[in-house]
User: Fold this.
Amino acid sequence: MRYAVIAPDGELAHHDDSLDWDQVIGVEGKARVRLNRSLAVTGWVNDVGLRFPKRYPRNVVGSCVLAAFGADLQPYAGPVVLTGWNPDNTPLGLTEICSLPKPVDVLDTVHGEVLKALAGQTPRELSPSWAESMREVADHVRTAPTPGLTIRAVTLP
Assistant:
C-alpha cells in the first residue's frame, strides 16, 4: 500500500509497502483525521498522542499540512500518516483505507509550501495571507493546552 508519513520533525517520507500501524502510529491506536473529501486522502494520528508529549511530540508541520487539506484546526502529535480514502466502498463492506492516490504532487507541494511559510517565506504560488495563516496554525499547535481528561464515577441502579 502506498502511504506517506510526516514525522514530528517535519520530514515527509513516501512508502509503498505494508503499513504496520503500531510501529508507525503507536500501540495506543490510530484516529482518523477527516480531510477535504475531494482529495481522496485521509490523515491518521495517534489517538492519545497529546497525552504523551515525550513519546509523541507535537507535529507542527504535519498539523499545518492537515489544516491545509481541510482538517479541523488542532494540534496533532506524533507521526502523521496519509493514506488514500474511498468512503464510497463502505456500502459494499470493503475497507475505506486504500493506497495514496498517484500522483502525490499535491502532498509534496503543500508540504514544501508549509515548510517555506514556517521559515518566514511566502511561497510564490500562494498569497501572503496563506503563509501567514500557516504560521498562525503553527503557533496554535505549539501553544494550545493539552486537552484534559475527566473521569467520573457512574453509579448503576
Q: What stands out?
A: The first strand starts at residue 2 and ends at 6. Helices lie at 21-24, 60-68, 105-118, 128-143. The mean pLDDT is 87. Strands lie at 2-6, 12-16, 30-33, 41-46, 80-85, 97-98.
